[in-house]
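<context>
A single protein, sequence plus fold
<sample>
Here is the protein in question:
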Amino acid sequence: MVKISKEHYNQILEHARNEFPLECCGLLAGVKTENETSIEKIYLLKNIDQSSEHFSMDPREQFATLKQMRTEGYMLVGNYHSHPYTPSRPSEEDKRLAYDPNMIYGILSLKGEPVLNFFKIIENKSVEKLVCLPI
């Protein structure tokens, strides 16, 4: 289960709308237990690919963000990106690039009404849509 506040959802939505028609991307910080991930802070990053079909995060920006995250007392729990024209589900590329089975992967679709889903992806084989509980 993933817990996300309306405020954090709105941050991701605003980021996606501001970057449209490009994919946006960012990191998710929070608290994780065996069955639950609570998102406590959103870190907006730049899509250096400048593409509407895929994204890449700048390694230097990621490193600086992870350092800031630790300084602020948060831990990395996952990442997110937008799909400007496609549904909120992992693409083949998303599955292939899901490097850590312990992370959650958020995908916000802007196709029609915005939809944000979170997934657990294991070794490009298993994709589990997680229950999202707004708080």
About this structure: The first strand starts at residue 2 and ends at 4. The domain at 2-128 is CATH 3.40.140.10 (Cytidine Deaminase; domain 2). The chain has a mean pLDDT of 94. The radius of gyration is 14 Å.
